[in-house]
From TrEMBL:
It comes from the Eukaryota. This is Carbohydrate-binding module family 35 protein.
Amino acid sequence: FYDGTISLTDTLGGHAYIQFNGTAIYLYGSQGPLYGEYIVSIDGTLVHKGYSGQETQRFQQLLYSNTTLAMGFHNVTITNTWTNAARNLTDIDYYVWTTELGGENAIITEQTINWDNATAWQYGGSWSATGDNLMFPLGARSVYSTVGADATATLTFEGDAVTVYGATSNLTGPYQVSLDQASIITYTAYHTEVNKEVIIFYADNLGPGVHELIFVNNPNELGPDNTLVIEKAIVVQATAPSAHHSKYVSRLSR
């Protein structure tokens, strides 16, 4: 499995839902003797009927791809539709998407902004640095984390797209994000397994100028999932607006 984990279901009708902004999508998962039928829908339309049954176990297999989508937001659903109870598994390992950035002759540049860049990142509330915990094992580069309710992390950057990386586990939980003072969106970093270097926020086609991205820790008061982890941001900048296909891809945050 990519990064050692997958999301798997044996439930008839069990499904995974993905939303992305772009022109192409690639879904990867497993195949094997216990796997069966699945379907893929895009924007509410059935586009693919698949079968993952194989005599031997295979990993990181392409389950579906579509490279002809109009640029914009799309909703993708992969659903388990097994017909044989002995072959009832469907899983998704990761996905890759392509989006459009820049003009016809645009130069695409990428900048990594680590959590400890004091020019770009500003923090409010109680945060601590660590490189040796359940979410980032010994030897991994350090991260910044908080368990404080309403603790904030603010990233100021100039670019056309931004990807922020953190971690998911049974200790991480709900958080809120606001970009350029737009509507606040609530996400969750809770997962039963530990995953490091996970995408916790992504946005593209942001337009020119300086942008402000705010994270707010919003812990679940009823459980231990009260941690928010920030590792780094990757900012992509194009020299001109509009319709050049720059294959800027990212992997699934499980």
